[in-house]
Specification:
The complex is a heterodimer of chains A (765) and B (232).
Chain A: H1 24-33, H2 43-56, H3 63-90, H4 101-136, H5 143-163, H6 170-203, E1 208-213, E2 216-221, E3 230-233, E4 243-247, E5 250-253, H7 255-258, E6 264-266, E7 271-272, E8 277-278, E9 283-287, H8 295-308, H9 312-322, H10 324-343, H11 345-358, H12 362-381, E10 384-386, H13 389-396, E11 400-404, H14 405-409, E12 415-421, H15 427-438, H16 444-452, E13 463-468, E14 472-476, E15 484-487, H17 489-494, H18 501-512, E16 516-522, E17 525-533, H19 540-548, E18 552-556, H20 561-570, E19 576-577, H21 582-596, E20 599-603, H22 609-614, E21 617-621, H23 626-631, E22 634-636, H24 643-677, H25 683-706, H26 709-715, H27 719-733, H28 738-760
Helix pairs in contact in A: 2-6, 3-4, 3-6, 4-5, 4-6, 5-6, 5-11, 6-8, 6-12, 6-25, 8-28, 9-12, 10-11, 11-24, 11-25, 12-24, 12-25, 13-24, 15-16, 24-25, 24-26
Chain B: H1 3-31, H2 36-71, H3 78-98, H4 112-123, H5 128-137, H6 143-155, H7 158-182, H8 188-217
The chains are: A alpha+beta (765), B mainly alpha (232).
């Protein structure tokens, strides 16, 4: 995996390897100079990787697994003979032992030794290898102690056999090795399953792509695609790189990337995204991004870097784990000394070994990253891109939800209801000038102006463009001598552009109707006014209803009060703060945090970027402009508001799983260590408990990855949104009118452009 | 020791009803073979592995039974209870196999993590791998196996317990060999008849065990001395 932090993640499961070391700065220096080889987070991953590699090579002997199988065989034999020994020397008193049995039982002890030896070789050797690798990196783990304990138990038993007296503990040696290897192996495969969800995005990219170079088709690895390559994509294939179609047309299913369930038609000149599925056309496209940096790659990398950053609970676990090794060493040595003194060396050894086994901090170290990774993977499967791991736990503690209005609660696609022109001005020129200037802005109203003038002849782009966030845009366009202003009525007044009485009358009327206005002006006078009606998203009212029952909900809008009140009525009386400039929104977020607690800001426009960045969690909707996406901690790719309750449910569930994992791991470790130190825990039981504890943490976290949409919405009592969503989908599916569906897909094309530009532009902040 | 032949029969015929679960493994074992001869070798290695596990489990169960008896000598009839429990389990399994009772059977699916491991071993070349596969499949949950283990526990002697399970394992060998080597040789009707016969065989083993248990119960005053329990 080519994540930014590839050096510090396990080569097998992709989880971060322990970054803290007992040797502090020296360890870091050592890491810098260490030989470039795969790094593993534990011996389980080392083992699992060996198994996986052998499985890949067909026909080769599966030696790693065979080794384990053989070890199990020998251990079982040792166990039977140990049971036989137990019936004699553990449970029968001196007088009960039949004299002729002595020779037989001596034989049994030798048999045990004989069969335990290969187990030590077969499973001890890989463990030793892992310990040596850890020591080389100056990051010793409890495995060192574990290996020492096992070796000591073996040596003690060997001495007993040779001397012909004393207890033997070959079964402990064998069973501990088998249990540790098996447990860690299963744990590693479980972990891989959790992190798999994270790589689901990457896997959407085909491994090879067909490119046309020098007139002939050739297959090259996807990573080798460069900008400008002509890539051929057959029906049924996934598109390997972001690009523009240069030949043919096709229906594209982009659900995996944008969450848009309706396939859209793309033809020559349209942009397509990597990872989307070509349903029916044999298309040729020109790559606009290299194979290593497409939309999908950037998304996958964003998720990976979110997973790599240390979450709050993880930092806590790290702090605890840091103290583990020294504490365990001290405890084990104490147990050894005390029990040796009281009841003999063998009891001391067993107690120390049990302490080491039970204190293995696997479960503790896994508790947070496992849950977090499972949850990030689940989120990205639901078209929610979490860019910061911590954002999930902050989201779970939110008290206030702030919504931006335009583009968030509304579709961001205002409908032109009418164009009012100054009688003296040419309507065509007004349209032309407005459309040209609007083309350089991503604001919803600008885009709407462009859309409503698609039939016009294209002209050269506007020059010398100045944009003022939340107000308007100005610049020079061909056909007009003066600087042209496009924006809100307030922007016009600020730039001394006068409304003529006729236009002023029309403007007042439009404002009473609560329409959004976009004015065009030059030469000191407003020449025309585009009047738009905003469309609320289908699910907006329901989602807000849901939110209001649970959170302090505020809608922030730059619109003036009359409009805000109309909107508030439409949204069943939600609190709306009107006439907010970007700076005001920022101030509002800070005030709300002081008054109520953690604030989640949900927005998408240019003008809420500061608020998104200032909020505890900034949620950017998919159709947003670049800058706001960059200030969001979370991106809703699908731009469906009903993802909000969904995400809140996921975040709450994640935090709960993390807490339970940590609680369990801490409890298990402390209680287990106490029992083991008291000599009440057989090392075999301790080894089994260690494996089971890690598996519990892994499977508990895996439940997050398995949650369905319905489960999540039910968790927060938002089932009605699911029903709503399905109804919406039915409606979308029932569109038969080809013209309408074509318009829809055009619609999608714009969004795709934006998405591509945004994501490929680099998610790095 | 009237059980051993009966146990053998139970294994032999009882395995007919187990083919649903374990027959698949036998077929998979055959998949890695190049000829009928090598297939037979693989099947034998697989069976040997399975029987080995049964023997170890039998010994462990017997040890458990013995420990239990020693730990609680005041419970006079512990061996009787063990024998009766084993018998009831067997009768239940037999009746369930014959289709006389429709309760959920005491079987479970292999955990998913283990399934991949089995597959690896089952299809790997060489004789060692099928044997290991057999050893691992020996641990699979199976109602009949548990009932037999209860019987082994009731014997309270390591070696008897091991022998009992070994004989049971050997009994299951022919059916598995047949299934693995030649697929299903019997007609549907033939298989059904065999199934019913097998079921009754299991039931009879169970009844004998219950009878023995009841025998202990009805002999008042006899306290287990810790000596050989099989002399009775």
């Amino acid at each position: 995996m080519s994540s930014p932090a590839a050096k510090d993640v396990c080569h097998y499961c992709g989880l971060p390897t322990p970054s803290r070391s007992w040797f502090g700065a020296r360890a870091h220096a050592a890491v810098e100079t260490e030989p470039a080889g795969p790094v593993y987070c534990c011996s389980g991953c080392r083992f699992a990787e060996a198994v996986a590699q052998e499985r890949g090579a067909e026909g080769q002997a599966r030696w790693t697994l065979t080794r384990l199988g053989l070890a199990v065989f020998f251990s079982m034999t040792v166990m039977v003979f140990t049971l036989a020994l137990w019936t004699q020397d553990v449970y029968l008193s001196e007088g009960e032992i039949p004299p002729q049995a002595g020779a037989l039982y001596d034989l049994f002890r030798y048999i045990c030794l004989l069969f335990a030896l290969p187990v030590l070789m077969l499973l001890g050797a890989p463990l030793l290898e892992s310990v040596i690798a850890d020591l080389r990196r100056l990051r010793p783990t409890t495995d060192v102690l574990l290996l020492m304990g096992v070796a000591a138990a073996f040596v003690y038993s060997l001495a007993s056999v040779l001397r012909g007296q004393g207890h033997v503990y070959f079964e402990v040696v064998c069973m501990v090795l088998v249990a540790v290897t098996l447990g860690r192996w299963f744990e590693a495969t479980g972990r891989l399953k959790t992190t798999e969800a994270l790589h689901a995005l990457e896997r959407l990219l085909p491994d090879v792509a067909r490119v046309v170079r020098d007139g002939c088709d050739m297959e090259i690895p996807t990573e080798e695609i460069v900008v400008g390559d002509q890539v051929r994509v057959a029906p049924g294939e996934r598109i390997a790189a972001d690009g523009v179609i240069v030949r043919n047309r096709a229906t594209i299913d982009q659900q995996a990337v944008t969450g848009e369930s309706q396939p859209a038609i793309r033809e020559e000149g349209d942009a397509v995204l990597s990872g989307t599925l070509n349903l029916d056309g044999d298309i040729l496209l020109r790559a606009t991004a290299p194979g290593t940096a497409g939309t999908l790659k950037s998304m996958a990398e964003a998720v990976a870097s979110a997973a790599a950053c240390k979450e709050r609970y993880q930092r806590l676990a790290d702090r605890v784990v840091r103290w583990f090794l020294p504490v365990v060493v001290v405890l084990a040595l104490t147990a050894l000394a005390v029990h040796w003194r009281w009841s003999g060396l063998d009891h001391g050894l067993l107690a120390a070994l049990a302490v080491v086994l039970i204190a293995c901090p696997c479960a503790l170290a896994l508790a947070t990253p496992m849950a977090l990774w499972a949850s990030l993977g689940r989120a990205s499967r639901g078209q929610v891109l979490v860019r910061e791991g911590d954002a999930l736990s902050r989201l779970a503690q939110a008290r206030v939800l702030c919504f931006d209005k335009t583009g968030t609660l509304t579709t961001g696609r205002p409908k032109l209801t009418r164009l009012v022109c100054d009688p003296a001005a040419s309507e065509t020129l007004v349209k032309q000038a407005a459309a040209t200037l609007a083309d350089s802005s991503r604001h919803e109203l600008s885009q709407a102006v462009v859309r409503s003038n698609r039939d016009l002849q294209p002209t050269s782009a506007a020059r010398d463009v100045l944009e003022q966030a939340g107000r308007g845009i100005s610049g020079f366009v061909s056909g007009v001598e003066h600087r042209v202003y496009l924006g809100s009525p307030r922007y016009m007044q600020e730039n001394d552009q006068i409304f003529s009485p006729e236009i002023q009358r029309q403007r007042d009327q439009a404002e009473q109707e609560a329409l959004s206005l976009c004015c065009v002006a030059w030469d000191g006078a407003v020449q025309g006014v585009f009047c738009f009606r905003e469309q609320l998203r289908d699910e907006a009212a329901d989602v807000l209803d849901w939110c209001r029952g649970r959170y302090h909900v505020v809608v922030l809008t730059g619109d003036h009060r009359a409009r805000a009140e109309a909107l508030s009525r439409e949204l069943r009386g939600v609190a709306i703060e009107a006439e907010m400039l970007p700076g005001d929104k920022l101030a509002a977020v800070e005030r709300l945090r002081r008054e109520h607690g953690a604030v989640v800001m949900i927005g998408d426009g240019v003008n809420d970027a500061p608020a998104l960045a200032a909020a505890d969690v900034g949620l950017a909707l998919g159709s947003g402009a670049d800058i706001s996406r960059h200030s969001g901690d979370v991106c809703l790719l699908s731009s469906k508001l009903d993802r909000l309750p969904w995400l809140i449910a996921l975040s709450q569930r994640t935090v709960r799983v993390i807490r339970w994992n940590l609680l369990w791991a801490l409890l298990y470790n402390s209680v287990g260590v106490a029992l083991a130190a008291a000599g009440l825990l057989n090392p075999i039981v301790a080894a089994a408990a260690m494996a089971i504890s890690s598996l519990l943490v892994v499977s508990n976290s895996l439940r997050l990855a398995g949650l369905t949409d319905e489960d999540l919405l039910r968790l927060v009592d938002a089932q009605q949104l699911l029903v709503h969503d399905e109804a919406g989908r039915d409606r979308a599916a029932s569109i038969d009118d080809p013209a309408e569906s074509r318009a829809e897909s055009r619609h999608g094309a714009d969004e795709l452009d934006e998405l591509a530009a945004t994501v490929a532009g680099g998610i790095t902040r | 020791m009237i059980e051993l032949p009966l146990v053998l029969m139970s294994g032999m015929l009882g395995s007919a009803h187990c083919l649903g679960m374990c027959g698949g493994f036998a077929l998979a074992i055959g998949g890695g073979a190049t000829s009928v001869r090598s297939n037979l070798h693989r099947q034998l290695a697989y069976t040997a592995g399975r029987v080995f596990t049964y023997i170890v489990l039998g010994a462990a169960a017997a040890f458990g039974g013995w420990r239990l008896t020693r730990a609680m000598p005041e419970i006079v009839n512990l061996p009787a209870i063990l024998a009766i429990v084993a018998g009831v389990l067997l009768v239940y399994q037999g009746l369930a196999a014959a289709g006389w009772i429709r309760w959920p059977r005491i079987t479970g699916a292999a955990p998913c993590a283990a399934a991949g491991t089995f597959r690896t071993f089952l299809t790997a070349p060489g004789l060692l791998n099928p044997m290991i596969a057999g050893m691992l499949t020996g641990f699979l949950p199976c109602g009949l196996l548990y009932a037999m283990l209860a019987l082994a526990a009731a014997s309270r002697d390591l070696w008897i317990g091991a022998a009992l399970m070994g004989v049971f394992g050997l009994g299951t060998a022919p059916a598995m060999l047949l299934a693995g080597a030649g697929g299903s040789l019997l007609s549907l009707a033939g298989r059904r008849r065999l199934l019913v016969l097998a079921a009754w065989c299991v039931v009879v083993t169970g009844l004998v065990s219950i009878a023995r248990g009841c025998g202990f119960v009805t002999l008042p005053g006899i306290v287990e001395s810790g000596g050989c329990p099989l002399c009775q």
